[in-house]
Amino acid sequence: MHEQYPSVVEFVADVPADVRSIAICGTSYSDTGGVARVIEQQALELTRQGYDVEIHTLTATTEPPDGVTLYEHGRFETTPYKEIDKLLAPFTPSGWRFLSRMREMDLVVAHRFPFSVLGSLASLVHGTVYTFWSHPSQASEDLFDGVAKLWATLQHHLETRNVAVRRADYLCAVSEDSGAYLESKTGRDVIVVPNSVPDSRFTSVASRAEIERRFDLDASETVVLHVGRLSPRKNVHELIDAFRTVTSDVDDCTLVLVGKATMDDYSRTIRERAGDSVRLTGFVDDETLAGLYERSDVYATCSLSEGWGLPLSEADRFGTPVVAYDSIPAATAVEDAFLAADGDRAAFEERLAAAIGRS
């Protein structure tokens, strides 16, 4: 059992150093990224407790919370240039400016590479307390081919075994499973701080009528929802196949896929498999997302690898039953969950059928 804290606030309060200013860092800060949501949550919680918080990122497409300063250090938003940006960040003028800024900060919380390296340098040069906040639960390079496979392997190494991770003052993970995995790679003790859904996130909820009108849903229709990027890591193709198998003789059942398309070839595969019973919405704002959670009868995901799985927590907040593999940490914290053993497709389809039948 790992040392645990219920929130980032309790963790920071227990750091022996006198912490007043905090830099929270991630590769991107957007409406669509799971890690960005965690950064937003941490910034909100810490700011409310009186800490001076900054967000540092390579690229940003959304505004920071009130009272939080946002610094954008990258130059590119599209593949492959953004990956090159990550690799070169510690050696660029932007990286040096970040390092200089860390002289003024008491604590740097690094989510992902390259801020793991930059945070480690800040610790060495300025004595800034450096925490690496881990998200990956396992390697995922088997989901990719060619150059993408090489990059996934390298990035996984840089966020697990790399010296910049191993020498952090503190290592944090979002679940027991993620903590155990990181310990196996670093040989270090890991602190667990679970993710949570900020109360301020869903203050407005789109009406049922608006959701049905916008996404062409009948009032009597059973809706299965999935939220996440359209990427091999999320295993969306398998979810579509499982849904079509389960609902082949069921009328009025629709799968709604909410998420941004990040890979052209994979997105093309998803569209080809989708059929009439699948809706692809792309990115939606929080009010619409809240309405979708509330309107949906079931939340389902075939993802095999998640650091936490925040959409499951969000669905649970709206009382939507969840169908998932038991390898997703958030699934174990959901009260109304239909769980299948990790990777057991037949069991997943049985759980999905049971959830749909109960709706």
From TrEMBL:
InterPro entries in the record: Glyco_trans_1, Glyco_trans_4-like_N
Keyword line: Glycosyltransferase, Transferase
Keyword Transferase: yes
GO molecular function, one term: glycosyltransferase activity
Matching Gene3D superfamilies: Glycogen Phosphorylase B
Domain (Glycosyltransferase subfamily 4-like N-terminal) ranges: 33-200
Its EC number(s): 2.4.-.-
Coiled-coil boundaries: none
Domain Glycosyl transferase family: 209-354
Protein name: Glycosyltransferase family 4 protein
Biological source species: Haloplanus litoreus
